[in-house]
Structures
1.
Amino acid sequence: MAGDLASSFKQAVALAEAQDKDRTTRIYADIDLKDYYQQKYSTVFVSCLKSTDHADASPFSFVVAIGKDGRVLRLYADHETNIFACVRPTLQKDEFPHPPISPFYMHISMSFSK
């Protein structure tokens, strides 16, 4: 299975962008995945911001490779911040809504500016 996964953050981003062209994956991403992610991870990020000493609130991007059963196959990040390090364990143990294709690459860009 790991041989089928992107080998780098850059490759994972390209695969995520390519998936956006397919109607089925756009529907999954815009409805199922977006709602799930926003409901669960808004509180996770707020908790990490509050609990991390000297939180590095610089913007970052990450990609989650999601398997057919919704489990996280691999995480990719453009750079490591202590906020992402705090969120990483929750992401790694999560089970997302089951995607229409596997692996499904979810690309998220985070910015904490006020």
Note: The longest helix spans residues 23-51.
2.
Amino acid sequence: MEVRDAATNLDHAFAALAHERVDALAVIHDPSFGPHIPRIVALVAESRLPAIYPRGAYVQAGGLMAYEPDRLAIQRRVGIMVGKILQGAKPADIPAEYPMKFELSINLKTAKALGLEIPPTLLARADEVIE
């Protein structure tokens, strides 16, 4: 479902999800969602859908799990690239890079509320587990 304006379209999107009988949800990152994270998590909880989110803030707000690039590692790489440019390298000559490190957050309270059991191997790989 596409949500162009989180302030007004969330209820419509979740009604459509219920109509489509969706079994799970993957929320894609959109900067406009930031102020609406608690509401998005609440709507997902009301829908009783397991969901994965693009930021750990959703898990802190009660979402099930998040998988995101390590932003600190990205910022470090950006600093290195800027340093190269300041030393005279042409930006076009610096190869594009993709995130190499990711963080997994899991909320066990939410998993329990949904009746889900998170496998121990997945919990062992998690960077953050909320109990």
Note: The mean pLDDT is 91.
